[in-house]
């Protein structure tokens, strides 16, 4: 569970605003320093086993009109979040973007949602408080869990005990925006299988893979939301379950695995909270494309650029990933998870996954 109370989160926001006043009082130009969020400023934390931001920082300063606007927007957002916490309410990132249109100072209003999203991330980093503790929610990610797990979820209508097979339909249990409101009560799971696509997730559930292998099947829903990554980490840390990731065989999907295992660049300040360093990659591997003669698509120019970038990405600089990426560049092909259906609808659950997971020592 989170150890940041609403009062503490609100206090951090007020302290940040007070720093601007102190800077004014001291005759300094108001400013806010945040870590530089780029690949070149990612360093490996040996103790935590995850990638985090390094020492390089960027300054949001009022020494220009553009910089002053950014700080103005930050102050208005701080005020909104502080009031939200005081009233024990919550809002989505999308709502924040639209809410800014009602602010009395036009210069404080956001031009795009990406601008407001990035500012919330800045406030997280500087304050040391997660956006969830500011009562900020993303839009629904749709990520779900199916498997032998009994949990208790805190809701505004009271606690609910839910079994992620017996008490849910084929769709599974939907992960809440703040998975720290979940208490694990009991489980018969042997491992966690994170799956990129909804189609493959549905195939595994329809074929009873979760039941036959006592697997917790977590649908990542593409690039996984923070709530999905947080729940995955908790399943690993608190239930001691191995975590494996099953994606398409393309550079963008490898980054999905990277965000689960190593953390993402944009949320490197939360890697210890979100990343699962010993998560393993199941596939689709470039070697699978060759071994199983899978149906493929040619690599696009953007795919090639992404693969070449990953060869320089510190999160992928291992012998395994170098070998696989170079192989993919050599064959110039990519494949989807569903390409395994070319060998039959049951191939993935009867042959591919059991053989791969057995070789990995998971089952």
Automatic annotation (TrEMBL):
Catalytic residues identified in the record: 98 (o-(5'-phospho-dna)-tyrosine intermediate)
Catalyzed chemical reaction(s): ATP-dependent breakage, passage and rejoining of double-stranded DNA
Record's keyword terms, sorted: ATP-binding, DNA-binding, Isomerase, Magnesium, Metal-binding, Nucleotide-binding, Topoisomerase
Domain of life per record: Archaea
Cofactor(s) demanded: Mg(2+)
Any GO molecular function: ATP binding
Gene Ontology biological-process annotations: DNA replication; DNA topological change
E.C. no: 5.6.2.2
Function field: Relaxes both positive and negative superturns and exhibits a strong decatenase activity.
Summary of subunit composition and partner proteins: Homodimer. Heterotetramer of two Top6A and two Top6B chains.
This protein's name: Type 2 DNA topoisomerase 6 subunit A
UniProt source species: Salarchaeum japonicum
Gene designation: top6A
